[in-house]
Amino acid sequence: MSATPRIGILGAGGRMGRILIQAVEQAGFKLAAAVERPESSLLGADAGELAGIGRLDVKIVGSLEEVVKDCDVVIDFTAPVATVNHLKICREHGVAIVIGTTGMNDEQKAYLDASATETPVVYAANYSVGVNVSIKLLELASKVFGDTVDIEVIEAHHRHKVDAPSGTALMMGEAIAETLGRDLKQDAVYHREGYTGPRERQSIGFQTIRGGDIVGEHTVMFIGEGERVEITHKATNRMNFAAGAVRAAAWVVGREARKYDMKDVLGFNDIQV
Ligand code: NAD
Questions:
Q1: Where would I find the Dihydrodipicolinate reductase N-terminal domain in this sequence (predicted)?
Q2: On the chain, which terminus has fewer CB atoms closer than 10 Å, C or N?
């Protein structure tokens, strides 16, 4: 890895893009390029001024092709079609790419996998270091408690969120189910009302709270006889995603062409629990 990786931000004018520009600077790395849609009214603006951190002398451009040679790695939080196009350019130039875009279909995911045979790709549905550490702790707790406790996942988000449970709550449920050899499709319980009968030990329960401006909170309870363990993550703003993605970008520069995730970035595979 070079000491100060040159990082390009794709979707620089978006909600995540602006925070990613801040995160690159906070981490002491070099913002090498900032890219927006070719028809964006932001082209030509200074990326630092756009992100509210003062002039950086990096102009927003309308295509990755223009700046790819200036980058060791790019971070892409855009939209699926744009991400596929960015993957194509990165694989042609052998530039590493960190992808946060969600909602890719199977064909787009297959293209991502194919690209990762030619250039390093990090992909994670959630770049928060805290969420990924929480998931590791959930795996530890699940392994130790086994079938001796009841497990419930409780999540809370702002009133504008349109899906439930959150993708992160489902990631947590999947990690628990996989550790315990359960199948989330069969064992998840999303609703309880009326005469439910006693709780099945195998169930993994999900409770959803929606209201106000809650950024995102997840608690998993391991509920036994006479004691209870709770593992909680609370997000207070989107910087947690951006900081994790910048950490992934610095980590992936110079690695072999492969698809990586946050477990690789955070070195979880080397930690025995
Ligand atoms: P947003 O709509 O605010 O920003 C997306 C930006 O990408 C926009 O500015 C848009 O103009 C730009 N864009 C679109 N096509 C482009 C192209 N061809 N070239 C350059 N720029 C292009 O959305 P957002 O809230 O910033 O989220 C972006 C994506 O990141 C979404 O898919 C979201 O779900 C995902 N996300 C992932 C994580 C994670 O941890 N993995 C966290 C937050 C958001």
A1: 6-127
A2: C
Q: Which among 59, 136, 161, 259 is annotated as catalytic? A: 161
Minimum-distance ligand 1 atom for the alpha carbon of 128: 40
Handedness of CA 117, 118, 122, 125 (dihedral sign): negative
Q: Specify whether the CB–CB gap between 6 and 71 falls below 8 A.
A: yes
Residue 31, SS3 per DSSP: strand
Q: How far apart are CA 209 and CA 164, in angstroms?
A: 9
Instruction: Name all domains of the chain by residue range, CATH numbers in brackets.
Output: 6-127+238-270 (3.40.50.720), 129-235 (3.30.360.10)
Q: Is the CB of 9 under 6 A from ligand 1?
A: no
Best residue for ligand 1 mutational test, from 37, 77, 157 (most atoms within 8 Å of Cβ): 77
The 8-class DSSP code of residue 256 comes to: P
Q: Would the CB of 80 count as within 6 Å of ligand 1?
A: no
pTM given for the model: 0.89
The helix or strand, by DSSP H or E, that contains position 180, with its residue range, turns out to be: helix 167-180
Which pLDDT tens digit goes with each residue over 11-25? 999 999 999 999 999
Q: Is 35 in the pocket of ligand 1 (CB under 6 A)?
A: yes
- Nearest CA to 123 out of 147, 156, 98 is that of 98
Residue pLDDT, tens place only, 195-249: 999 999 999 999 999 999 999 999 999 999 999 999 999 999 999 999 999 999 9
The model's pLDDT over 97-155, given as tens digits with 9 standing for 90+, comes to 999 998 899 999 999 999 999 999 999 989 999 999 999 999 999 999 999 999 999 99
Query: Is the minimum distance from the CB of 181 to ligand 1 under 6 angstroms?
Result: no
Alpha-carbon gap, residue 89 to 149, rounded angstroms: 49
Beta bridge partners of 236: none
Nearest CA to ligand 1 atom 1: 14
